[in-house]
Design goal:
heterodimer; A: 310 residues; alpha/beta; eight-stranded mixed β-sheet; 8 strands; 13% strand; elongated; disordered N terminus; B: 300 residues; binds guanosine-5'-triphosphate; binds magnesium ion
Chain lengths: 310, 300
């Protein structure tokens, strides 16, 4: 199945053709290229405010630059775009923080349907397999129908304990006792699955704040659907402001979305994207690679190969 | 005609904010539509057309361009008059198939719609066609209990087409008026899963030749440009007849459905406005389009 987007490389090809052979990148050249960069980023769902800032930075850097011998002016602009994008995405892969005194508490938060429960199970599996941890899961979603059944089923698949108290108990109490239980039973990691909620739902956001205050998590991971559009900035800004998240998990990256939300989230929260969900199965979680994401958003793979062809 | 009038009235309010129709106006309009996730192409086309018109007619005064803008916006964006009614089988049981990517709200919408039909004294049966996701059958079961309708299910991991076959016969023998069929979420680029969905539809068609009477694609309003790819692929696989736009109770506007309507001609039938049983409403074109511009008008 084809991806419905033109890559930036294709978009820029024509413009590049025109300014080939000039010695300097002129303001007009940059303006034309900037337009293409802007459209490509918007089509990839990067938030328009983030795009604006980004394009301005690229413009500033690109205008008046001496053209390197080996590059055409167009290629040089692309080089600047790529450098700026990579810088914005962050460079290193991120790890999960561990508590000095176990258990390490990880709280999963996010909008409805983002993939929190699935990621809870995937992360537990990952930490056990790769980091030799002994996680316990806590079912703190009392709202969504059969949320506890869902986590229990995943726990069974993993052969891992799930702590739950049904749906008539406050989630704040559930996580508190869940963490205590994990301590008693010597689990070094406990992952809290919380209910999906809107970032503008004051009551439910307060509930998360109370949960945070009562168990003091080492990680608060915001789970975000990679297909999210312009609203990603509002969502991540609000969750970050109210909870001070420690990182992000981007799910459903096995789809064909460009995933520009990743860029928006980085720009507004400056928090690392730590993991990528690559499927529905419990082993389909990967450490996040920022540089690959930069390529994906703009079809930079193509772009870079264009530069190489110089 | 009434709604169309009030729509342009609202567009007038928007444009009245600007005394001069300058680049700033067009930029703000463009950003507004982009920020609502209206398709990038749709927005660029529209705004370029408006720019062109303004230039040609040498308009400086917003009062002069207002009617033009209003007309263009109405033509491009207004769904007024579109039919959001579900097509029901007049001769027997109506079968509605729900499709969509993961986590958009298919199962929840089925629960809400079951409630909606029950309130009209219709006998409703649900088919638990998601045999894959952990807890999916239990989730539909809870909705069935909540609304007071039967759920036809098999064990987790069984063939979804077989579940549909069963459900159709069970629903028929209970003389159900409506059968709502849940399916597992799947990303549109998963070829095998899309084939599986085609098979589910074929089985339904074989058992009830006029069915499915609706194939509803559930889209999450938070989704950006990828919703267009979803609509294209699901339409190709299952001939989608309508859209349910969920999670409009958040801050996302779901503007991509405008581009989907322009390109694929699929109407929106319902919107989801929350997680409760009555948080489903028929799509109101005027309200929706106005919602896109609300922030601009309110800023005034
Ligand atoms: N393809 C794909 N599907 C995913 C991924 N992560 C989660 N899902 C699916 O997305 C849907 C929603 O996942 P959940 O884990 O239930 O999401 P949630 O955030 O817990 O949802 P709520 O509790 O209702 O807020 C399910 O169908 C999952 O199988 C992923 O990385 N890829
Ligand atoms: N705020 C809000 N949440 C909704 C709405 N519709 C569904 N949800 C929530 O979104 C989450 C996912 O809904 P589901 O009905 O499980 O979605 P699904 O498409 O069946 O998911 P899969 O079967 O996993 O693909 C749940 O937490 C629902 O409560 C809505 O209109 N507004
Ligand atoms: Mg969940
Ligand atoms: Mg479902």
């Amino acid at each position: 199945m084809t991806i419905a987007f033109e890559s930036l490389a294709e978009r820029l090809q024509q413009t590049m053709q025109k300014i080939k052979g000039k010695g300097k990148v002129s303001e007009a050249d940059v303006k034309e290229m900037a337009r293409e960069v802007r459209l490509a980023l918007l089509e990839a769902d990067v938030n328009f405010k983030v795009v604006k800032q980004f394009v301005n930075r690229v413009k500033e850097r690109a205008v008046g630059q001496e053209v390197m011998k080996s590059l055409t002016p167009g290629q040089q602009v692309i080089k600047v775009v790529n450098e700026e994008l990579t810088a914005l995405m962050g460079s290193e892969e991120s790890k999960i923080e561990t508590a000095s005194k176990p258990p390490t508490v990880i709280m999963m938060v996010g909008l409805q349907g983002a993939g929190k429960t699935t990621t809870t199970a995937k992360l537990a599996n990952y930490l056990r397999k790769k980091k030799n941890k002994t996680p316990m899961l806590v079912a703190a979603d009392i709202y969504r129908p059969a949320a506890i059944d869902q986590l229990n089923t995943l726990g069974k698949q993993l052969d891992m304990p799930v702590y739950s108290e049904g749906t008539d108990v406050s989630p704040v109490d559930i996580v508190k006792r869940g963490v205590e239980k994990a301590k008693e039973e010597h689990h070094d990691t406990v992952i809290l699955d919380t209910a999906g909620r809107l970032h503008v739902d004051e009551n439910l956001m307060d509930e998360l704040k109370e949960m945070k205050a009562s168990v003091n998590p080492d990680e608060i991971l915001l789970v975000v659907d990679a297909m999210t559009g312009q609203d990603a900035v509002n969502v991540s800004e609000q969750f970050n402001e109210l909870l001070e998240i420690s990182g992000v998990v981007l799910t459903k990256l096995d789809g064909d979305t460009r995933g520009g939300a990743a860029l928006s989230i980085r720009a507004v929260t400056e928090k690392p994207i730590k993991f990528a969900g690559m499927g529905e199965k419990i082993d389909q979680l990967e450490p996040f690679h920022p540089e690959r994401m930069a390529s994906r958003i703009l079809g930079m793979g193509d772009v870079l190969s264009l530069i190489e062809k110089a | 005609q009434k709604t169309r009038d009030s729509f342009s009235e609202k567009m007038n309010t928007l444009a009245a904010k600007y005394r001069t129709v300058d680049e700033e106006f067009f930029e703000e309009l463009e950003e507004l539509l982009i920020s609502a996730d209206v398709g990038v192409n749709t927005v660029m086309e529209l705004v370029d057309e408006l720019r062109e018109t303004a230039k040609l007619e040498n308009v400086k005064n917003s009062a002069d361009i207002l009617p033009v803008i209003s007309e263009k916006l109405t033509e491009k964006l207004d769904f007024t008059g579109e039919d959001s009614e579900l097509s029901m089988n007049q001769e027997g049981m109506t079968v509605i198939l729900f499709v969509g990517v993961n986590g958009v709200g298919k199962t929840t919408t089925i629960g809400k719609l079951a409630h909606h039909f029950k309130e009209q004294d219709k006998k409703v049966v649900l088919a638990a066609g998601d045999t894959f996701r952990a807890g999916a059958i239990e989730q539909l079961g809870v909705w069935g209990e909540r609304v007071g309708v039967d759920v036809i299910k098999q064990a987790e991991g069984s063939d979804p087409a077989a579940v549909m076959y069963d459900a159709i016969h069970a629903a028929k023998s209970r003389s159900a008026d409506v059968l709502l069929c849940d399916t597992a979420g799947r990303l549109q680029n998963k070829v095998n899963l899309m084939k599986e969905l085609e098979k589910v539809k074929r089985v339904i068609q074989r058992e009830v030749p006029s069915a499915p009477h609706e194939v509803l694609l559930v889209l999450d309003a938070t989704t950006g440009q990828n919703a267009m790819a979803q609509a294209k692929q699901f339409k190709e696989a299952t001939d989608v007849s309508g859209i349910v736009l969920t999670k409009l109770d958040g801050t996302a506007k779901g503007g991509i459905v405008l581009a989907i309507r322009n390109e694929l001609d699929i109407p929106v039938k319902f919107v989801g406005l929350g997680e409760k049983v009555d948080d489903l409403q028929p799509f109101d074109a005027e309200q929706f389009t106005y919602g896109l511009f609300q922030t601009l008008v309110e800023e005034k």
